[in-house]
Amino acid sequence: MTLAALLSHWARNKMQLAMLLAGLTLATALWSGVQALNAQARGAYATAAALVSEDGAARLDTPSGQMPQSRFVALRRSGLMVSPVVEGRVVLGDTRVTLLGIEPLTAPPGTAAALADGDLQGFVAGGGFAHPETLAEIGPSDLALTPSQAVPVGVVLVDIGTAQTQLGMAGQISHLMLTGPAPRPLPEGLRLSQADAGAELDGLTDSFHLNLTAFGALAFAVGLFIVHSAVGLAFEQRRGLFRTLRSLGVSLRALTFALALELALMALIAGLAGLALGYVMAAALLPDVAATLRGLYGAPVPGSLQFSPVWALAGLAMAFAGAVLAGGQALWRLWHMPVLAPAQPRAWAIASGRAMRWQVMGALGLGVVAVVLAFTGSGLFAGFALLAAALLAAALLTPAVLALCLQGAARFARAPVVQWFWADSRQNLPRLSLALMALMLALAANIGVGTMVASFRATFIGWLDQRLVAEMTVTPRDAAQAVALESFLMPRTDAVLPLRRVDATLAGQPGAVFAMRDHATFRDNWPLIQAAPDPWDRLAAEQGALINEQLARRAGLWPGDSVVLPGAGAVSVLGVYPDYGNPLAQAIITEGWFDRLYPGTPTRQLAIRTDNPEATRAALLDEFGLSAQAITDQAQAKALSLAIFERTFLITGALNVLTLSVAALALFATLVTLSGLRLVQLAPLWAMGLTLRQLARLELARALVLAGLTMGLALPVGLMLAQVLLAVINVQAFGWRLPLQVFPADWARLALWAGLAMFAAAAWPAWRLWRAGGGPLLRVFAYER
Amino acid sequence: MTLLALEDIHKSFASAEGPVPVLQGVSLTVAGGEVVALTGESGSGKSTLLHIAAGLEAPDAGRVLVGGQDMAALPDTGRAKLRRGTVGLVFQQFNLVPSLSVGANLAFQARLAGGHDAAFCTQLAARLGLSDLVARYPEQLSGGQQQRVAIGRALAARPKVLLADEPTGNLDEATGDAVFALMLELARAQGAALLLVTHSARLAGRCDRVVHLRAGRLA
Ligand SMILES: Nc1ncnc2c1ncn2[C@@H]1O[C@H](COP(=O)(O)OP(=O)(O)O)[C@@H](O)[C@H]1O
Ligand SMILES: [Mg+2]
């Protein structure tokens, strides 16, 4: 009965109901969509880990990441339960995949299961298995590949012989899988490591997922702003009804219960709709996210989404939590309202004035927290806490700052209508403030993330130009061919710079040591962020190593410090170079020293400096019968790197647009809800000789002015956000720090969007005011509302 | 000189049972300096007639002449201009601009019309007992105080035609009488045509003429 009376309000205010549901739905959708993406990726890592090893199984490997196959034969003969693995990245068809070569007879059951339904003959004869999605990406290729759901996306499972041929590792294997107990003591030169590929990927991609989660939380918060304002307004409008019900004998408890029930009902409806929408959104975004994770980290994430009930329940719980958060205040106020509280409009104003004071105080408190975090915090979590505190502080401050602006403008106004315009905007601010906060947050997020990405892009492109100076690179088939290629190319080109590396743990982090030839190409172009005096001469003199920025920042190693390299002990750091897009630690030493430390390490690639890349390419193809894929020219390499870069931030762009749309919706909801109230405020002006068209135009102008002011406010907040992202979050998450660059053209575009969003939100109420004619306004005067 | 002329005004409103006639041929003229009281039962159409006279609403048939100008012949902007400069309106409720102070409200229409006279405004505020309230906002005033501000605002613009819908309905008898006297005095002094709706036979008796609206016609 009580509930029916309460619900009747929504029947008359359908728009308000729609907004409330839309807000909660969107909030839930954005949050649960992001969670679905994260869960999907994490699940994929685990699948990948299970394929290459039994749970937690160990492996035997060498620091160079390679060992002769004869080693396996010898160990197996001695009774050790091991199985050989050849692993590497290779271009197949149209894409780059991880080629995983196994030996089917000795492989552990987990891996063998992937083959169970396949035909072993074909496999050993050069066939392979891959996920259907991987197959689609590869397109036509020389390998006979069979689809299999058991193989992670981005991985091609082949026989060990096939892998050796494809990867140029004839007679070599990458490591040994232990299928039995670990030997004690370990065989000479081998080390035992936990082949927990899943955990490794988890570590690397954590930052990416944290970024996504932060974005999801932001969108959720923006959505809650809508719900909060809709619930608050509905509460205000129903004050009279509450009073009537209570004076009719409905107990406070029953009324509260009915309101809570109403809220729960909405949470359920919106939660279910949000889940559906979130699922659709995640399914639409997953291909991009998966491509990013594969491109950046080689993480095997499939591009299609699976449904999980746990995820659905968590999403619903989030919708309920959101409803409670947004509606709690209204319920609390109900408890504290005297039965016959007069429905005075002034009370609203006083309450909102007090609210503004509280907001400013809250903002100052959060600001202090942010400053403290900025100076004392460390770690990714502290970085995000800093962001959250600063953003929330800025959002809370928004109404007060806007109020000051409007008051200032009113002081300068001369014409009566202009004066009224500012005073009226100021007076209506409290009712709009939640929506404006949401808009401010969305705009600041757009500016911040946009500036971060654009700054990164500018730096990245400049860096690519320096790093990719070699006109072309060649990937030899095997070690012998590498030697032949080098002697073939030496006289025909300006320089041949071989690339050799061994995997290594550097300062406790996964990484690699690289060999660098002492050559003008590097001396002239290789960018260094910090360097000791004469770094290149000292590098050539085997006096130290160069390390990448990731390693330097994570381990706190800078020129003058020393880093431990496997087999070489502590080596002094001569310089730090930027190394964007690579999640792993790196150290570079001069070629001669490298070869003595890690003898027999094969050359993986040859970088070639030449004035005539076309002729060199032709010669290579003719003389060596290299496949066209083995030769990459500079332009291709740049295009590939840039493509990976763009994909990395595609998802960010999509989430930006979504957040802005949510804010626009919040504005629309609020303006529509307020339009009834506006009539009372506008009617006297109409009676005094302003036309409806003028009034409608003023309403639109007000919306645009507010959007402009909000944008002006969002700009410094967004730049602050960008600075934190670049100087704190990126450093923590990726290990590199970038200079902030500003792109005013982007701001102009965003301001235009904000204006459009605001215009779209205000247009309908304004149009309705104009088209409806004087009737509704006359009813105001006739006291018939 | 006739400042307000209503000629054979017809108006009906749509309802579920078809159109309900409210005004069925109302004709009325008010000359400059003349004060006419409009009486009638609740729901007889007094407010509707005032709205039509002010150009806020269009009649179904008939002509409205304000200062000799035919309302129907004017575009929307022209009617708005008449409301701004020639007509003064006082309604039963919700007269004031909530975001402006009492002082700003008092001066608002005069400034809109371009005839603001600060000294006159101050004098009006004093005579309406509003001097201490000019810095307040409408929502901080009682209903009666708000009504006095609305009357002051209409008078401050020195309109040629003053239309008031139960202007003293919210006032106690003494204040009502005083405010009523002020309206009469200023309308006469400014040579304005004053048409006011009242339920009080006593106040109606102090006007130059009383017209009674019944069954859609004036008696
Ligand atoms: N916009 C409208 N739509 C429908 N009916 C209306 C409208 N305005 C007034 N009425 C009706 O017209 C009649 C006269 O109203 P009104 O002029 O306000 O009377 P009064 O002011 O004399 O009390 C009433 O029955 C009222 O319900
Ligand atoms: Mg009336």
UniProtKB/TrEMBL annotation, chain A:
Record's keyword annotation contains 4Fe-4S: no
Membrane topology of this protein: Multi-pass membrane protein
Keywords, in A-Z order: Cell membrane, Membrane, Transmembrane, Transmembrane helix
Amino-acid biosynthesis keyword on record: no
Compartment(s): Cell membrane
Classification via InterPro entries: ABC3_permease_C, MacB_PCD, Membrane_comp_ABC_pdt
One family name in Pfam for this protein: FtsX
MacB-like periplasmic core domain residues: 434-618
Domain ABC3 transporter permease C-terminal: 214-338
Ranges that cross the membrane: 214-235, 255-286, 310-335, 356-375, 381-406, 434-456, 657-680, 700-730, 750-770
Protein name (record): FtsX-like permease family protein
Source organism: Roseinatronobacter domitianus
Taxonomic lineage: Bacteria, Pseudomonadati, Pseudomonadota, Alphaproteobacteria, Rhodobacterales
From TrEMBL, chain B:
Organism lineage string: Bacteria, Pseudomonadati, Pseudomonadota, Alphaproteobacteria, Rhodobacterales
Keyword tRNA-binding in record: no
Species: Roseinatronobacter domitianus
UniProt GO molecular function: ATP binding
Residue span(s) of domain ABC transporter: 4-219
UniProt protein name: ABC transporter ATP-binding protein
Leader peptide range in chain numbering: none
Keyword check for S-adenosyl-L-methionine: no
Keywords in alphabetical order: ATP-binding, Nucleotide-binding, Transport
InterPro entries in the record: AAA+_ATPase (IPR003593), ABC_transporter-like_ATP-bd (IPR003439), ABC_transporter-like_CS (IPR017871), ABC_transpr_LolD-like (IPR015854), MacB-like_ATP-bd (IPR017911), P-loop_NTPase (IPR027417)
